[in-house]
């Protein structure tokens, strides 16, 4: 019993540590990716929202091509490396990585050529082709040559549950990308007074620049860890022999479901990209650019901000897959059940208050990034709650992948997409610009319900424990939401939320008050200790904070 408890604690500690590193990488890169918008959006005026619409449409296509060019191989490699490592077959894992790297180079070249050539066909928004879109899409094709290599290197480290290299490379990649974007946007728009399309092209080319820096830092990590990795390979059991074709077969068999599932959120976004414009145009008589501006409000403006908190879910998902895969390889069903519970508990503990908090400050935070816009703020408010659905979808799909339930995950995704497509026009008809978000939530909620039910029945994870914690987390989050809202409204009596720097003051004070309340409530109720594990207790004692 004591041994089982120690094992569970070690698994929880590994998960918390891995999640902490991936959260660092995801959050810092997302924050950088959001903060650059403030000067970039100002320099782009009066074309800010149109520039964002061009970027959003291009990135939706680019994201699909990235998934195709990587073919889910980084996730598959992380999962399979974790599996062989758990069996003390580190040599097989290294061979898997090297063969996967060869596949990455080939797929990157093919995918980049296809995207470049097909850009004129893809640069349609459902009503007409936009020549500006072609140039922007083509500028992203260069990144597709490089990012597959970056992705599989991250997958190799993640297979060892070593999340620090991935996290640091994410930060470095994003930093280089943002520096290039801001530098080129300033020179083109403010110094040369050039075309905003040229500035957007350079901003998208920054993805390739960032990827080069990301690869460089991972190469350094590989070099610095070479002795440790070589020792593990040298002391492997060497009882499993897998041929090159066998390894390729394993990679492809695991990769195909990964590409479909990882594309899940992007597929939902593509439905919006190709249906929103014609649907809204049939209901409201406004100009082409007005509809494009509305599209930008939810497809990029709000989405960029909510993806900061959705990235929390992605960080946990990346950490959960190798841990679940290792437990599955050992047929440790008790460990699987415990890991599912830990993953969902930590997700809810972080995501729900983050989403409620962003909803509460949606108006001033939107003003900080894009300037005051009532419609944009309302869309961000609804998008903040949508982030919970997107995040939970990400985590649950990762859990199913880690358990080799790929076929089931794909079935749930297809069903959710069908519901999204069926609901799209009725929701746009009733809710206009808010319709796509409502339709997305409907599709996601069906997937979430089915996945949770399956995990409960098949793996007997402690759903009652998670339900109790969910009730506690949601209760604290609602109180925090009301408190933050009250602070915000109180500050608006003396500060003007329409002015950027005053909106920043409102956000800073409201977030501080809300954060202190939530942390205090979570610690005093011992919710934080239960979810984060025993290692947090000594830290709380040193800070003289006890339940």
Could you explain how this protein is built, in words?
The chain is mainly α and 547 residues long. Helix 11 packs antiparallel against helix 12. It has 21 helices and no strands. The protein is globular. It has a domain of 207 residues.
Notable features of this structure?
single chain; 547 residues; mainly alpha; 21 helices; 86% helix; disordered N terminus
Write the layout of secondary structure elements.
Layout: H1 2-35, H2 37-44, H3 48-70, H4 73-86, H5 90-122, H6 131-159, H7 164-191, H8 196-224, H9 226-234, H10 244-262, H11 264-283, H12 288-329, H13 333-360, H14 362-370, H15 374-402, H16 406-431, H17 435-459, H18 463-491, H19 500-524, H20 527-532, H21 536-542
Report the uncertain regions.
1-12
Enumerate how many helices there are, as a single number. 21
Over all CA atoms, what is the radius of gyration?
Answer: 23 Å
Number of E-state strands? 0
Our estimate of the beta-strand percent is under 5%
User: What is the overall pLDDT average?
Assistant: 81
Characterize the biggest β-sheet. none
Describe this structure in a few short sentences.
It is built from 21 helices and no strands.
